[in-house]
Amino acid sequence: MEDKVFYIVGKITGDENYKTKFYNAYKFLTEKAGHDKVISPTCTPDNLPYECYAPISIGFVQACDCLFVLRDWRESKGARAEVAYAEMLGKEIFYEENIPNLEIKGE
């Protein structure tokens, strides 16, 4: 069976350690969970105007098979929109908070 494409969702704006947090989530999905198709929103340039990110993230949600949602997603308007859109599309959603003993942090 072909591996699913994951998209990582979580708070970026206002989190100075977001790159580390998303990198740790990427490492978890690729090294511990064994997935080799993982999209992180940190692959986009970090100097674009805020308004540019919504259409990019919606494209990522459309392109993926499932979401991996970090604990802080409710603190982000963009992350909440991504989860809502994924739900509307019927995407499979995995929440970090539902995985026992897993806590992905920035440093």
Written description of the protein model:
The chain is α/β, with parallel strands linked by helices and 107 residues long. It has helices at 18-32, 53-63, 77-89, and strands spanning 6-9, 38-39, 66-69, 92-95. The chain has a four-stranded parallel β-sheet with strand order 2-1-3-4, sandwiched between helices. The longest helix is centred in the first third of the chain and has 15 residues, at 18-32. The model has no long low-confidence stretch (mean pLDDT 92).
Overall morphology: globular
Low-confidence stretches: none
Main beta sheet: strand number and arrangement?
A: 4 strands, parallel
Rg (CA only): 13 Å
Helix content: 25-40%
Structural classification: alpha/beta
Q: Quote the average pLDDT.
A: 92
The overall strand count is 4
Please state roughly what percent of the residues sit in beta strands, choosing from under 5%, 5-15%, 15-25%, 25-35%, 35-45% or over 45%.
Answer: 5-15%
Element-by-element helix/strand order: EHEHEHE
Strand arrangement across the biggest beta sheet: 2-1-3-4
* N-to-C CA distance: 35 Å
Q: Helix count?
A: 3
